[in-house]
Specification:
Elements (H helix, E strand, L loop, with lengths): L1 H22 L13 H12 L3 H8 L10 H19 L3 H18 L2 H17 L3 H17 L6 H20 L3 H18 L2 H17 L3 H18 L2 H17 L3 H18 L2 H17 L3 H18 L2 H17 L3 H24 L2 H11 L3 H69 L1 H16 L6 H33 L7 E4 H11 L1 H6 L3 E3 L7 E4 L1 H17 L6 E8 L3 E7 L7 H6 L17 H14 L3 E7 L3 E9 L7
Parallel strand pairs: 2-4
Antiparallel strand pairs: 1-3, 4-5, 5-7, 6-7
Helix pairs in contact: 1-19, 2-4, 3-4, 4-5, 4-6, 5-6, 6-7, 6-8, 7-8, 7-18, 7-19, 8-9, 8-10, 9-10, 10-11, 10-12, 11-12, 12-13, 12-14, 13-14, 14-15, 14-16, 15-16, 16-17, 20-21, 21-26, 22-24, 24-26
Length: 663
Amino acid sequence: MYKMHARLTYYIGILVVLILWGCEPSREYDGYGIFTQEQRESAENIVKSMNLRQLEMLAAITTRGESRDTVLLQSQVACRQLATKNRHEANFTKAIEYARMSYVKSMTMGDTLEILRSLNELGTCFRRIAALTEALDYHYRALTVANAYSDTMDILIKKAQTSALNGVGNIALKMNNLSEAKRCFSESLVKDRELGSLIGMAINYANLGSIMQTEEKYDSALYFFQKSYILNEQCGSLTGMGLCHNHFGTLFENRNMLDSARVHYELSYKVLSDSKDKWHWLVSCVSLGRVCLMQGRMAEAESYLLKARDIAKDADATESLEQSHRLLAKLYRQKNDYSKALLEMEESQKLNEAMRKEMQENTFNSVQLEYIKEKGDREVELERERVRVEHEQSRLKVNTIIVFSFVSLLFICVGYFAYRTYKKRKELMDQVNADKNKVFGAVSRTMKVPAIEQRNAMRFIIDNIDELTIPELRQYLIQAYSSSVTQVDMLTNIISWVHIQMGDVAPKPANVNFCQLVTEAIDMLSLSSKQKNISFAMPVDRGMLVYADPEMLQCIVLNILSNAIKFSYSGGEVNIKFRDDAFAVMLYVEDHGVGMTKEQLSSVLKPNKRLTSYDFKDGITGLGLNICVELAKKNNGTISVESRQHRGSTFILTMPKGIPAAE
């Protein structure tokens, strides 16, 4: 009953601590996520298991009036995945549509992490179609929001921050603002290294290589591309490896090593075809067409360029489409097909003019200065205030639920522990009764045999005393004596077991000469050992002291040595060794007898175990070992055993070291 009250008090204390903790001011700024990590992972797993039709149906779901509705989260994740899928397939119209739907849903939920992911997805989609102003706007908005949470240690927020930096760096590289691109890629590389993101590091190394290539530092570019390829290979990114091959091809092409360039372009083309990333595949397809044209492989060049032109037109990939038209115009001029060359050149010029106009409309420097100026002021503060208010509301709701649930939980705990106490008492009574029946059953079975043997031996001696020779008389007396020893051992074990179960055995520890006690125990068992011709190998007494109850220690040692004799083969030897350390003395008793099976070994030394049939197999030997474990435990000692069947057993008794007399 006392234990029940202690446990009940413990659990109530935990509940009180939780309530007080919930009422304290927040120690950590963690309002950026409406949903828990488990909810996010669950939504991701559900969406991944769906086919395309199911994804589209889920993406069409709108808000159900509850900002934290997990169904809305699943719908938002479906929109984001559909945006990424269509972007890889170079279907940018649908990709942007789904990315915008994802952004709207994330704003409805008010979940900052999903807002960041949606902004970066929109920026990437617009960047792929060369709409750099829109792309830059989305990436900078994502970077502004991410910086508002830069004091948090959330990994997903930091990943969104590196994605935004990478997007800004790519746009700066497109606009030939190499210093800004290098700053963004270097900062992103440092953050990805802190996060341990191999794919992020690979992307940034490749981007830094592109800057070196633009600056005509080809050796440095090759170094960065090789670093990127190794990391992409480690994380198994086909797209990354394909892009690296394309970078290698460009380096060889710049050095006019066209055969080597074509080999890498072909590898890039093949790898990116397998990855189903059409936008990056277009780059490799155009590059392969260009190098084939430079080598005079007209048929191959025309095949690649026509394929790139048609897919780029469907995908609205302006840059790849312009390059395809321009290279086809050059190809048709070389084939003297001037009408086709003129048509291709006109299309190329139209696209080139549109791209030039787009570049002129992009105001990178002004957007950059505006971002730097406003970074950390009103927008960031507004975001922080929104999240703070939301966090306070969330905490208030949690505290209300905890307080409201406390009384119900208290009654449940009281009822549970009351039932558990009743059940344990009943099980204990059943166990005691069962053990009592087993002990008395064992007594009636096992003690009957030695008593009958003793009676028969004494009867035979009395009836034939005049006719028996001295050796015959000695033999029958030894038999009667052995039976009486067995009876005494059984009674001792039973009495000790009863005392232990009743809890009235209290040790009286003192310094005991361990070696001397073992020697005396061997002498007490000399008759049993002589009957089986068992010898003992023991080192010279070293005067080692242990601190234990002498009678209990003698009972333990006698049991262990008796078992060693009993289960040794006739004519065998029992090895006794001592070992001590700073705090304990170990006794090793090693016999070379029948040993134990794994089943016997696993159960023979379990303290306070319920009695089983194994405990009474050999004159309640198992019960004796069980008593030894209990007695050793009461004296702060332990017993362990190592055994192999038919190889023998080694019992290890560890007892506390004796206290010197001066102390």
